[in-house]
Write a structure and sequence with these properties.
Structural class: alpha/beta
Radius of gyration: 26 Å
Number of domains: 3
Number of helices: 22
Shape: globular
Helix content: 25-40%
Distance between the termini: 40 Å
Strand order of the largest sheet: 3-4-5-8-9-10-11-12
């Protein structure tokens, strides 16, 4: 444990002891009832993080009132005393492990759930009637008008300040010793503080002091309600990353105004209402680790020992955290997705079992689902969000031990093997190639796919040591399967690339994207990538980053671009396409490959040619139905299961979950 002496160094603030320096950052599992009450699902979602060793478990984004503050479905309602019974249970379950429970008090302001408000005859409210940019973005795509925002009256401001105080009081009454005030990411407090939004001319707008007034009055009201022995953490964006928004030096001046009113400052960046800054607060795999640490470091330098500071943003391992803390940059490190991928990652790491830590791939499936009113799920941890069904992330042992044959060693097949072994079954896995991984091996070749490569290494290593009998370089046949005499057969045979039968397809400069990404084939300077889904867009960005002149062609409309990516990662990838000058053409179908490039036809039935000396095909995959049909008769149909891309083309999430769900029921 001495390797992580700074991580595991306890600290006491106002008589409250924190057993180490790791905080679980707020998340949005979307598991409360429609009325905002705590459910068993909510409790079981957060409990593993406390059991896993964190010092603070922060319950995410909870509304201070149920009138205007709510910004997503399944949110906890802190605006009603009825919430306290559930908060009591939640606090008990977290604090039984020696962790402190906290909760993020929030008001969405202009970012509030406009559809929910409209159903109540209300509109979003803010310091100034400025619609959220993300609402404008999607309204434009859908041909709609963005939700109108109302300017808050003085009476509503006063009521809202009291709502924060009352919400904090309910948490204290329920056994909490701390709360987090969400003043970051473009939420209501920052909508007053930032002149990007705040255009008021009264005592809450104009000068810096006036714009800070709402936040100061809010913090004073909370402190009066909870008392001096209660920990208040304030979350802030050190840089809003938009023109006219809050920048670091102004944020430092604000922090100096509030440092005596709070105990911990939680430093992030960006603003949720603006979709193209989201990647700086919920980082995708395309951006570096520890992205915002320098911002927290600068604030810590400015406040010194007057205030404890926490950093957040793709701190993915205990080694990352130890480095940050060891250099004295901040006092706490906040992490979320590593706990989602593996709630036991702290304990495993401390015990020297780093190779057993299931790594997060920063696909942001977990974070992005809330935008579509869906409960949280993790691409690589199939029990996340389903803790009530799979307590402690475990499947039950099978009543009867069976022999399970799995054909295909991609992510679906490997997850099926791991789960079947956990159930107590005997497993034989056939893989026709000389190594496990399947198409995931092709998906990890690009430089910015490090997270996915880490996951590939993890699941291969776990499968190899699982106890399954693995037969590499062995193509399964019906006869071979029957010789094994299995009780169940899982076909995870994957898919093959779609290569269109068009003139010129066999030319020597036409390549499948998988061969391009791994560097197996040469790529010249002027490239056309055909297929604007996630795979094609990532290949296009990679080639453009290497200095190639890249055009990306998509047969469908703009809505089909980057299909297969989570919402958050989509905005990031779209930014990279623009940054590196990739020319994007939609509603255009490839018809022929010529000696000079490609010939296409667009939605206006116009023929258009694009010059290229390399054509990259990223047109998707096709299930290996012929293989499936040849093998499925090896056993009675009721004992044959088809998973992964062989069943339906998907991604890591669909592969892992189909493998898990199938094996968990055998």
């Amino acid at each position: 444990m001495s390797k992580y002496k700074n991580v595991f160094s306890p600290i006491t603030i106002k008589g409250v002891e924190f057993k180490n320096r790791i905080e679980v950052a707020p998340m949005v599992p979307c598991m409360a009832t429609p009325e905002g009450w705590v459910t068993k699902e909510v409790i079981e979602f957060y409990r593993p993080f406390a059991r896993g060793g964190a010092a603070i478990v922060t319950v995410g984004d909870s509304a201070v009132n149920w009138q205007h503050a709510m910004d997503h479905e399944g949110q906890i309602n802190l605006g009603d005393d009825n919430v306290k019974m559930g908060l009591d249970d939640l606090a008990d379950e977290i604090q039984r492990y020696g962790a402190l429970i906290s909760i993020e008090l929030n008001h969405g302001g202009r970012f509030a759930n406009s559809m929910n408000l409209a159903s109540k005859g209300l509109k979003p409210v803010s310091s100034t009637p400025k619609p959220a940019e993300i609402d404008e973005y999607f309204s434009k795509l859908q041909g709609k008008t963005p939700a109108e925002v109302e300017e808050m009256s003085i009476s509503l401001i006063n009521k809202t300040i009291q709502d924060y105080a009352d919400a904090a009081g309910r948490c204290k009454d329920s056994g909490f010793k701390m709360v987090m005030i969400h003043g970051a990411h473009g939420m209501l407090p920052s909508q007053f503080l930032s002149q990007y939004v705040n255009k008021r001319t009264d005592r809450y707008g104009g000068s810096f002091e006036n714009r800070a007034r709402f936040c100061i009055e809010l913090l004073d009201a909370v402190r009066r309600r909870v008392g001096q022995d209660f920990i208040i953490e304030y979350r802030i964006s050190a840089d809003e990353l938009v023109e006219g928004g809050m920048k670091l030096q102004e944020v430092i001046e604000f922090v100096k105004l509030i440092k005596d009113k709070i105990d911990i400052l939680h430093v992030s960046a960006g603003m949720l209402p603006n979709p193209f800054t989201i990647q700086y607060m919920i980082q995708p795999l395309y951006v570096p680790y520890m992205l915002n640490v320098h911002l927290a470091e600068e604030i810590k330098k400015a406040v010194g020992n007057d205030l404890y500071v926490a950093t957040v943003g793709s701190v993915m391992t205990l080694d990352n955290a130890e480095e940050i803390l060891g250099r004295g940059l901040v006092d706490f490190v906040s992490m979320a997705r590593p706990f989602v991928a593996d709630p036991e990652f702290m304990r495993k790491t401390a015990l020297g079992k780093v190779e057993d830590v299931r790594p997060c791939v920063r696909c942001n499936t977990c974070c992005g689902r809330s935008a579509f009113f869906k409960k949280t799920r993790c691409a690589v941890n199939p029990t996340n969000g389903r803790e009530t069904r799979y307590p402690d992330g475990k499947v039950q042992k099978a009543d009867v031990k069976k022999k399970v044959v799995i054909v295909g060693g991609g992510p679906a097949g490997m997850q099926a093997a791991l789960t079947a072994i956990e159930r107590g079954h005997e497993v034989v896995l056939f893989e026709k190639e000389n190594s496990l991984g399947g198409t995931l091996k092709h998906a990890t070749d690009l430089e910015f796919k490090k997270d996915l490569k880490n996951y590939l290494h993890w699941i291969v290593a776990q499968t190899l040591k699982s106890g399954a009998r693995i037969k590499l370089n062995q193509e399964a046949t019906e006869e071979i399967i029957k010789k094994e005499n299995p009780d169940a057969l899982i076909l995870a045979v994957g898919a093959t690339p779609i290569i269109p039968n068009i003139p010129g397809i066999d030319k020597e400069y036409v390549h499948w994207s998988g061969d391009v990404d791994c560097g197996r084939v040469p790529v010249r300077d002027k490239v056309v990538v055909v297929g604007g889904g996630l795979t094609g867009a990532e290949s296009a960005v990679d080639l453009a980053m290497k200095g190639k002149d890249v055009t990306l062609i998509e047969m469908k409309g703009p809505e089909a671009l980057l299909n297969g990516s989570s919402l958050i990662n989509r905005f990031s990838l779209q930014s990279l396409l623009m940054k590196y000058g990739v020319k994007v053409v939609t509603n255009t179908k490839l018809e022929e490959i010529t000696d000079k490039g490609i010939k296409t036809i667009n939605s206006r039935f116009q023929w258009v040619e694009y010059e290229a000396d390399t054509v990259v095909l990223a047109l998707g995959m096709r299930p290996r139905k012929d293989v499936i049909n040849n093998l499925r008769c090896a056993l009675p149909e009721t004992e044959v299961y088809i998973i992964g891309d062989g069943k339906e083309i998907g991604n890591v999430y669909s592969a892992v979950h189909s493998g898990f769900d199938t094996a968990a029921e055998i």
